[in-house]
Write a structure and sequence with these properties.
Layout: E1 10-14, E2 17-28, H1 32-48, E3 58-62, E4 69-77, E5 86-88, E6 91-98, E7 101-109, H2 115-128, E8 134-141, E9 155-161
Length: 162
């Protein structure tokens, strides 16, 4: 029986949305968490200063597998396009987009440390259904983690293009 925190894949079509992103290129996988923490700290500071108009939950886009050196983006969807890069906390926030298309979604409720196994289960479920998931893979973080957040209450939506 599959873990109840990962639902059977749901299929949807999503439109492209404007985003503010921090690009991580050639990031050692062991530094991924530090990159994401710095990126989301800068993105939240930009939002608090009204430099970007956030319209949804934070997300990460993984352009490569999580091995060795990786390429990923951290960002937030925006109400309107960002016209030019902005700097916050020494981090460059760039105009970007979260690409639309045909997607499969699964939901994980629990600690981020379980995400790798949940991804493997989700992608395996898609392949069993005859789907061919394509990169990039996307995670949408439905809560803002803090030291007070109980890890088993964290919700992450997993998306794969199909």
């Amino acid at each position: 029986m599959s873990d109840p925190t990962v639902t059977e894949p749901a299929f949807l079509t999503h439109k492209t949305v404007h985003a503010a992103i921090v690009r991580g290129v050639d990031v050692p996988v062991e530094d991924m968490i530090r990159f994401l923490d710095a990126a989301f700290t800068a993105l939240r500071a930009a939002s608090d200063a009204a430099a970007i108009a956030v319209d949804g939950s934070g997300f990460s886009v993984y352009h490569t597998e999580l091995e060795g050196r990786i390429s990923l983006d951290a960002g937030f969807p925006l109400i309107a396009a960002l016209n030019a890069p902005v700097e916050f906390n020494g981090v460059t926030i760039e105009p970007g987009e979260l690409a639309g298309g045909d997607l499969a979604r699964a939901v994980h409720t629990g600690p981020y440390t379980e995400l790798r196994a949940k991804w493997q289960e989700f992608l395996g479920n898609l392949e069993e259904q005859g789907k061919s998931p394509k990169m990039p893979y996307v995670e949408v973080y439905r809560n803002v983690p803090s030291p007070q957040t109980e890890p088993w209450k964290l919700r992450t939506d997993l998306f794969a293009y199909v």
